[in-house]
Design goal:
This protein is mainly beta and 169 residues long. It has one domain (41-148, 157-167): Sandwich (Jelly Rolls). The protein has one helix at 164-167; strands at residues 2-7, 11-15, 18-21, 24-27, 44-50, 56-62, 70-76, 79-85, 97-102, 107-111, 115-121, 126-132, 141-143. It has a six-stranded antiparallel β-sheet, with no helix packed on it. Bound molecules: dTDP-4-keto-6-deoxyglucose (T46). It comes from Flammeovirga aprica JL-4.
């Protein structure tokens, strides 16, 4: 696995080396020997199938000791992975933020603790598999509205499908 691009020196766009032969493709989906993961301990892995294009899940984070570093891979379809630094002052005029489009299982995105995460699907039947280094703790869950004026992400849809929860952050 190698880092092909980084944002704020801590959000990493990663590419996995892959082996292909007449049977298909083999790629290493997680490698503890990659520098980013030397202290990363997977506590949870989530498989999420989203039916409709332009569905946005996010932006979510868990507070304090339940904060999560997440590692996303789009195993089918296409998605714009968003990240927002929520570690600073709530009074900030703008928040460090960005997005990476994934449409190839050979690529993945690592987002450290201190960020809200989410993604906008760009094709129907998009499947995202992601790891977290913390347990799910609903009472610690928080979020930020996907189009909060302090966020600098150019989402590919301005009228996404949202859960009730995600409409109300
Ligand atoms: C995250 C999570 C959820 N759930 C349950 C809670 C709900 O009954 C159901 C759906 O949860 P939610 O609507 O929060 O799922 P998403 O909208 O896909 O949000 C997730 O995806 C975005 C990208 C995130 O960054 C978070 O990791 C996560 O919140 O799964 C669990 O049982 N365990 C879990 O770890």
């Amino acid at each position: 696995m190698k880092i092909i691009n980084s944002y704020f020196e801590e959000v990493h766009h990663i590419e996995s080396h892959f082996f292909s032969d007449t049977r298909g493709v083999f790629l290493k989906a997680f490698d503890k020997n990659t520098s980013v993961f030397k202290d990363y301990v997977i506590q949870q892995s989530n498989y999420v199938h989203t039916k409709e294009k332009y569905t946005l899940r996010g932006m979510h984070f868990q507070k304090e000791e339940f904060a999560e570093a997440k590692f996303f891979r789009v195993v089918q379809g296409k998605a714009q992975i968003g990240f927002v630094d929520v570690s600073g002052s709530k009074e900030s005029e703008s928040l460090k933020s960005g997005s990476i489009v994934l449409n190839n299982p050979k690529e993945s995105v690592f987002i450290p603790k201190g960020y809200a995460t989410g993604y906008l699907t760009l094709e129907p039947d998009t499947v995202v598999l992601y790891f977290s280094d913390n347990i799910y703790q609903p009472d610690s869950e928080s979020g930020i509205l996907w189009n909060d004026s302090r966020i600098n992400i150019s989402w590919e849809s301005q009228s996404p499908i949202l859960s009730q929860k995600d409409k109300l952050w």
